[in-house]
Design goal:
The chain is an all-alpha fold and about 130 residues long. Helix content is about 65%, strand content about 0%. It contains four helices and no strands. Helix 1 packs antiparallel against helix 4 and helix 3 packs antiparallel against helix 4. It is rod-shaped.
């Protein structure tokens, strides 16, 4: 009895993952990768928001101080606020980059998994 060969289309797997992250992995039956993808996306999104909020806080505080409003409760000098603003801006950019890389890696992984879906790793190396 001949075993039916299932063909997975790499372009379709990539499109599925582009539309819904992890859908390409489900299409190629690599279910264990889906939680890893979502952990990466959620973690980087969390750090992006955290860094953005702190960047916005220190930037707004610094701009308010320059404008004459010194009613903030932060124990930082103006130079410290500039340093903190630049630090959290950089961290926000790194978080955005990591989010994008995780998303793209999700698409590439789905496409590669579809390419290798029928790859035979059995001990039989004879030619047919």
């Amino acid at each position: 009895m001949a075993q039916e060969s299932v063909v997975k289309i790499p372009k379709k797997a990539g499109m599925y993952s582009a539309i819904i992250p992890g859908a390409g992995q489900v299409y190629t039956k690599k279910y264990w990768k889906v939680p890893i993808i979502y952990a990466g996306l959620i973690t980087t999104a969390y750090y992006f928001k955290e860094n953005h909020d702190l960047y916005d806080l220190y930037k707004t505080t610094y701009l308010n101080r320059i404008g004459g409003n010194t009613s903030d409760n932060l124990n930082y000098t103006d130079a410290n606020l500039v340093t903190l603003t630049e630090h959290y801006r950089r961290n926000r950019e790194v978080s955005a980059l990591l989010f994008t890389l995780t998303y793209v890696l999700n698409i590439v992984d789905a496409s590669v998994s579809a390419h290798l879906f029928n790859y035979d790793v059995s001990e039989d190396i004879s030619l047919h």
